[in-house]
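Justification of computing resources. Each target in the renewal requires a structure prediction run like the one illustrated here; the chain below, 88 residues long, is used simply to show the kind of job we budget for.
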Amino acid sequence: MIAKRVVIKGAVQGVGFRDWMVARARLLGVDGWVRNRPDGAVEAVIAGDADAVEELLRACRRGPPAARVTSITDELADPPPGPGFVRR
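Resulting structure tokens:
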């Protein structure tokens, strides 16, 4: 089990990134949350099996079709308080 806090920058708001990420996370069985930040980035906490977390991170580097990801950073984090993956 691993948990990471992720910040995704670029053209990532208004392009369905959060809904796309919720769907991907649920398919991979990853727990956590995703939200828009005031600075235009998308932030998430993702937790689960290390392989599933890394797969979601790889997918986030591409994002949904309308997104244009310019950078992504991740760091270890405390796991989210409950199961499931939600959009905030």
